[in-house]
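#struct-help
A.M.: can someone run this one for me? Single chain, 270 residues.
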Amino acid sequence: MYVAAWADLPFKKKPQEFLTREPGQVADTLRNGTTTQRSDLATELGIYAPNPSDGATTSNAPCVDFSHVEEHSGSFRSGAEDVLLLADSSACDSLYLLVFDKAPKSEWRHVQTVRLAARTQRPEVRFVELIQPGVSELLIHRNTTLDSGNAGQEDVLVLKMLHDRMETVLDTTERSDITLANRTPGETDIQQQKQTSTFELLKSTPNSPAQYRLLEKEVITDNKTTIRRFRVWTWDPDLERFRPAPFDGGNVRPAPPPPAKKPAAPATPK
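D.P.: on it. Structure tokens below:
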């Protein structure tokens, strides 16, 4: 006799349970609440400290110590009112992104909490409109994904509200630095490889469904060899992701300088 075991398949989305919470009250509790109040709220909203043995693994210990909390208003869905709370915690080496959504004639609801590592530096988070006018995404620079003695990596992310969740629709390396020790006793040099990318917003062509594209300028340095290449990231509505494509760097030209002002004509004596 076989007994069927029910399991959640990877492609099956669970119905999201939203918590009704006023963003201003949450921010005030994180700033000024008692330890018990902050602990209860952090547990309810999924504000967890990183696992000391594995930063990629979610722990069940709430983070209760916040050095700074700030509020930002925006709109992650068409016609909605949204608030993003940025909660800094040096004690937990984290920056927490708390997303709150309010549809017309409805209550505030806590949508999601996203944790970013902030042990050595604070990620840069800002609102941008990349795809649809009036609907914002979150553009995150300097998200540290690797930080060890001989290797470091920072990524750039784009988070977008999809299916009532904040999803990562772009994740690529912004900076990496790797230093390798001597491979054999006879070698005296140190193997070093660096990669740095900068990103600019490009207005899309008139027939493109995207409002903006991201132009990546990448520089790879391997010891004394330097390689430069360009790629453009464009929104793919079918995959609901930004997709990269090679780009001719020769087409990238700086904006022309403004015309020089003509010197004023000398006054004519009367």
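A.M.: thanks! Residues 35-45 form the longest helix (11 residues).
D.P.: also worth noting: The mean pLDDT is 83.
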